[in-house]
């Protein structure tokens, strides 16, 4: 792996802040919302993280992490539009939850990939994107995401009753 650049450190530190604030917000409020201060922090920091990811090219070109950054920006925009303008009426809150919570999955995939490819220094956990350890982490994150989004949707449905 190439050395971390200043942009890479900025991206990584803000990414950690985003993930922590995102999980905190979901734990405390069940959904991410721009109306809550921790939700606003998560959304704004995630916007910076996704934007900075587009400037990192340590793999030689536009890659999966860049695609995830673009998906994150789209999900943030969609979540914000649903929260603010409620294009789908009472269903907007479900799309808001789906959009904002999806960004947590989009954070976790490159985060664990980069972590396992960089550490421990000199003898990394993995050396390939096809390593079973990495694929199992990705699968676990996907399962946690699906269970989490279903729980959020059920919670939102109960709030409406």
Describe, in plain words, how this protein is organized in 3D.
It is a single chain. The chain has one domain (about 5-160). Helices cover about 75% and strands about 0% of the residues. It is built from five helices and no strands. It has helices at about 5-30, 35-55, 65-85, 90-120, 130-160. The N and C termini lie far apart (about 50 Å). The model has no long low-confidence stretch (mean pLDDT about 95).
Please sum up the structure shown.
By secondary structure, this protein is an all-alpha fold.
Strand content: under 5%
**Average pLDDT:** 95
Can you count the beta strands? Answer: 0
Number of helices: 5
Uncertain residue segments: none
Number of domains: 1
Task: Choose one word for the global shape.
Answer: globular
- Taking the alpha carbons of the first and last residues, their distance comes to 52 Å
- Helix fraction by DSSP (H/I, runs of at least 4): over 70%
Helix- and strand-based class? mainly alpha
Largest sheet: none
Q: Return Rg in Å.
A: 16 Å
Secondary-structure element string: HHHHH
